[in-house]
Amino acid sequence: MSSKPISVLITGANRGLGLEMVKQMVETQGPLTPVSVLFACCRDPGGPRAEGLQALAKKHPDIIKIMCMDAADPKSIKQAAQQVASVVGKSGLNIIINNAAIAIRSPFFESTPEEMQNCFNINAIGPMVITQEFISLLRAAAKDSGTPGMSCRKAAVINISTIASSNGLANETYNKWRVLPYRVSKAAMNMMSVCASVELQKDEILCMMLHPGWVRTDLGGPEGELDTHESVEGMFRVMNSLTEKHCGALLNWKGETVPW
User: Is the pLDDT of residue 1 over 60?
Assistant: First the structure.
């Protein structure tokens, strides 16, 4: 029996991991397909950095809805939530993947308050506000599913994290990635995600974090160990296997627990 199509929202969907997520959801028979509607969000959907996303949307106009959303702008997030609600209606929204992020490459003694604030706005505060603004749509999807338990096919918030956010691994990873604002903001996002997961459990909405691996993207750099296809393929397999026991967990793209 085929699975019921799901609705998905992805932030930072114009390049890197976000663009690959969109591509695999609409062009492959993956673990999270079929998709009824995919809201591909980015700050400048009409700009040159979104040309790949625009091309995908032209190929799949019935599925991909490109939307303007700035993760650092609460007004933009609220407007996007209203637009999504007008499309999905009472069926709600099944999955939010908070993928948009910024990495400022500053070590400890070179980091500034402004750099820290910029990273916090996008990497930690953004996912919090997005979850708050879209909560009614997630609740509607959970209720509409009619199935017990928690899963990504029911209702879920997946926050893309990083091994660089791990306190437990900082001593061995810091000299490799001396990116203080990014690390600290992602560690804050982890705590926000755990707190959100506790709040969301009563509505049977799953919330957890995923480390995509060190990926060759604009953010990860050219020396990454994985390409975007490998990373996203792995993360989607993990997402499809998630249950209520994974609430608040930080897993990598292979499904392994990351200490944080």
Answer: no
Backbone Cα Rg of the chain: 17
Q: What is the pLDDT, as a whole number, of residue 23?
A: 98
C-beta of residue 224 within 8 angstroms of C-beta of residue 159:
no
pTM: 0.96
> In the prediction, which pLDDT does 2 show?
54
Q: Which domains does the chain have, with CATH numbers?
A: 6-252 (3.40.50.720)
Per-residue pLDDT band for 99 (boundaries 50, 70, 90) equals very high
- Please give the pLDDT value at position 215: 84
Query: HEC profile for the chain?
Result: CCCCCEEEEEECCCCHHHHHHHHHHHHCCCCCCCEEEEEEEECCCCCHHHHHHHHHHHHCCCCEEEEECCCCCHHHHHHHHHHHHHHHHHHCCCEEEECCCCCCCCCHHHCCHHHHHHHHHHHHHHHHHHHHHHHHHHHHHHHHHCCCCCCCCCCEEEEECCHHHCCCCHHHHCCCCCCHHHHHHHHHHHHHHHHHHHHHHHHCCEEEEEECCCECCCCCCCCCCECHHHHHHHHHHHHHHCCHHHCCCEEECCCCECCC
Residue 117 φ then ψ, to 5°: -65, -40
* Residues 239/158, Cβ–Cβ less than 8 Å: yes
Which residue has tokens 């948009």? 100
